[in-house]
Design a protein that fits this description.
The chain is built from 3 helices and 6 strands; from the N terminus they run H-H-E-H-E-E-E-E-E. The longest helix is centred in the N-terminal third of the chain and has 22 residues. Helices cover about 25% and strands about 25% of the residues.
Length: about 170
């Protein structure tokens, strides 16, 4: 009868190692990611209420609408046309919209016309759990912006310059 002594400890070692790997894999899947910072209710109203929004968001004399969009939705064409018409008439107007990240966190944008050059668009990622901002209500909470000559250039694809708030 062959000696099976050394095989048994290797077998136990293999089973133990496998159990440790399975447990480690299970535990690594349990580590929570960052929690959502999405505001309850209207993300556009929440963005307007951010402490640093006063210097970024300009209330237009006319609203071209506020839209909380779902994944894959786009700002309605009528709202875009409203901004262009206001710009051509030299009247101030504003359009606001929120689009979700792939995790569902709102990214909120505000476009204004009639207050200077073409169109100005400001966007905040203050409610995005992956924006690396510790506190979405802090004064430095994630705003970016650009100005474009073409008032129809809502997404900054043409002749646009970044805006820096001071």
């Amino acid at each position: 009868m062959p000696d099976s002594g050394p095989s048994l400890p290797r077998w136990r070692l293999a089973v133990s190692a496998s159990a440790v790997l399975v447990a480690a894999s299970a535990l690594s899947g349990c580590v929570p990611g960052p929690s959502s910072r999405a505001p309850e209710g209207d993300p556009i109203a929440a963005a307007r209420a951010l402490p640093n929004a006063g210097g970024v968001i300009k209330d237009g004399a006319r609203s071209c609408g506020e839209f909380v969009l779902e994944q894959g939705e786009d700002v309605p064409e009528e709202a875009r046309d409203c901004l262009v018409a206001a710009s051509v008439a030299g009247e101030p107007a504003e359009l606001a919209w929120s689009t979700p990240t792939s995790e569902g966190d709102p990214i909120v944008s505000f476009a204004t016309v009639g207050l200077g050059r073409g169109i100005q668009v400001y966007t905040t990622d203050a409610f995005d759990r992956h924006s690396r901002i510790e506190d979405p209500t802090s004064p430095g909470a994630g705003w970016s912006g650009y100005a474009c000559d073409d008032p129809a250039d809502l997404f900054g694809t043409g002749d646009c310059d970044p805006l820096v708030e001071g």
